[in-house]
């Protein structure tokens, strides 16, 4: 039996700044909380293909697992947690604006 | 210090102009990422976890004050006010934006610095003993040879698309401070009946398959160096495994074919290409050597040093750990620790860089070095100036007296920055240093090298740490494996895996148990951790690491 599909977001790095971005219904956001949560596998695959085609603005598009609490996506893996926050040795990156 | 020729300046200018155009074409969409990526990597530009990262080469770890100031200016203007010195004598900027990178490279070119071949499957920045030209135990300064190799390998048309990256290190001393045995090629300058030549070691490397290099040639005459190197890389270029990224390094080529087979192939290739080297390379080497002539060392009264050493215990502690023997009478080599307890190993703020530049200019014959152990060296300092230097360093958080001690930890950027990492390294290094500072034990423990990598690629050299720590992802949780007994010197050895890994919470207490066990086990206070380990083997240390296992077995 195939593994059940777990909720995901589409993420990448912005071409110019290099920072972490997430796909929304209308474009891209720098804030994971604003990301579109994908719960259907076929839909996720299609959105990934569309997002990957936007090579003029984004780099390295992929699907990342999230857990959803009160409708808001949170990183499922510690790597995605760091990407969503920033490094742990300085208050740099996204955490500067939180 | 090597002086750029008109050719060097023109080459760098043209190369930077090419990259500027490539960045513009990427931004306007004419180049796709697949096309741009190899171009940016050739120029040291990575895309990491949170941002781009620019890796700038510091060839053989040598800088002058103007170059260090420029690194500080760039850190402030284009980054977040600091830079990270790496285990291969590079500096990395963690936060540049793509549009700014061509300007950064132009700024670097003003002081003869660049990021060429700091990435990609090419011959990388050539590293050298950070005490080069200053060490008391040196046969010859390795930097002229390293510069010759830099020039030969830069944009070498045959070697731009090697099976994998290729790293060369050069040492001029029997005491290896450049880890030459874990490089693709390690060169040791040796003397035989008054003649200078090279011991050539090949096929060393760390990463997922750690290997100690093997001797390919005991005594290569000086004049044959470049054709011989070209023969080695040429043989590797054809024979190296391009079918499997993990088997593509020369260490695997040497391992699979055997050193004798490789030697035979290299000799055959060498015989072919030797006649094409007309001796121009040796003329160039002679000119480069003149650039690296020793500065005029001055005689001076050592009394200020003796006085401070007797009366200031903090200065004495720093002098005992951070100074090394210099070749000139009255001089010392100063290692400036970038490992203040609790700080990020290898990081320096722009302000700290400017201070080190000023000290080099005022007291150090305008010379600075970056060590693969992520510290900064003032190679030529008269002892009379040491009290003033120490006072200035201390005021900027650079006076930590811990060179070679447990808190002088090598750590790669790990998952705090690196896209390849499987776990964090920096917080582990910070916590170990902080813990042993609290215990006030590190001077009692003595020489002990801890090296931490955040993935199997081993940028943190964990295999050659007396205590090596490797961060892994085990079922979605950071997990740290310990190896013991590694050594990165002339007696190079790969550490032995101690057993199952530890969680981030468990790893600091585990290291503490190891070190306390060593204090109990050592035959006398002068027996180092590594000596004790070699005498007793893994078993008693394993018992200290896994006390519950021992209890279960009983």
UniProtKB/TrEMBL annotation, chain A:
Domain of life, per lineage: Bacteria
Location of the region described as Disordered in the Swiss-Prot/TrEMBL record: 78-98
One Pfam family matching this protein: DUF2849
InterPro entries: DUF2849
The protein's name in its UniProt record: DUF2849 domain-containing protein
Native source species: Sulfitobacter aestuariivivens
Automatic annotation (TrEMBL), chain B:
Record GO terms (molecular function): 4 iron, 4 sulfur cluster binding; heme binding; metal ion binding; oxidoreductase activity
Pfam families cross-referenced by the UniProt entry: NIR_SIR (PF01077), NIR_SIR_ferr (PF03460)
Top-level taxon in the UniProt lineage: Bacteria
Nitrite/Sulfite reductase ferredoxin-like domain ranges (all copies): 52-110, 344-395
Keywords of this entry: 4Fe-4S, Heme, Iron, Iron-sulfur, Metal-binding, Oxidoreductase
Domain Nitrite/sulphite reductase 4Fe-4S: 119-271, 408-545
PANTHER family: BLR3264 PROTEIN (PTHR32439:SF9), FERREDOXIN--NITRITE REDUCTASE, CHLOROPLASTIC (PTHR32439)
Name of the protein in question: Nitrite/sulfite reductase
Species whose genome carries this gene: Sulfitobacter aestuariivivens
